[in-house]
Amino acid sequence: MSADAERGQQQRTVRCLIAKVGLDGHDRGAHVIARAFRDAGFEVVYSGLHRAPEEIVQAAVQEDVDVLGISILSGAHNTLVPKIIDGLKEYDAFEDTLILVGGIVPDEDRPKLKEMGVSEVFGPGTPMKETIEFVRNNAPRRD
């Protein structure tokens, strides 16, 4: 077996947490992205509805995820996403986690989220292939 083949077998599967934060009660999009990520070969954990930022941080740390996808439709992204980022920093997990936000986020709020550490914001209608390729190209590599 070649060295490249051995490294490929040793590299772990991309591990993702799809999370619904706050009082947002619509999770169809979260289910769709979770299924698409699974079909793309990623390991996926779904948080379920109505999770507090602290619960999402705990799940991300305990599951040792590479990617945290935050689905939010309520408009509370400027309040809830910073709490999650602060929690990840508190547990020293921020640098190792690709943070994505999906849902309804006004264009004028996107730069602020990215300044905080969100890698990308995907709005409604984003092709699934684009989201999957973004994860493949940007998820932290761990052995």
Automatic annotation (TrEMBL):
Q: Where is the signal peptide?
A: none
Q: Which domain of life is it from?
A: Archaea
Name the coenzymes or cofactors required. Answer: adenosylcob(III)alamin
Which stretches make up the B12-binding domain?
Answer: 13-142
Keywords, comma-separated and alphabetical:
Cobalamin, Cobalt, Isomerase, Metal-binding
The record's GO molecular-function terms, alphabetically, read:
cobalamin binding; isomerase activity; metal ion binding
Q: Name one Pfam family in it.
A: B12-binding
| InterPro entries listed in its UniProt record | Acid_CoA_mut_C, Cobalamin-bd, Cobalamin-bd_sf
- Hey, which family's this protein in? Belongs to the methylamine corrinoid protein family.
Question: By its UniProt entry, which PANTHER family does this protein fall under?
Answer: METHYLMALONYL-COA MUTASE, LARGE SUBUNIT, METHYLMALONYL-COA MUTASE, MITOCHONDRIAL-RELATED
The protein in question is named Methylmalonyl-CoA mutase
Species per Swiss-Prot/TrEMBL record:
Halogeometricum pallidum JCM 14848
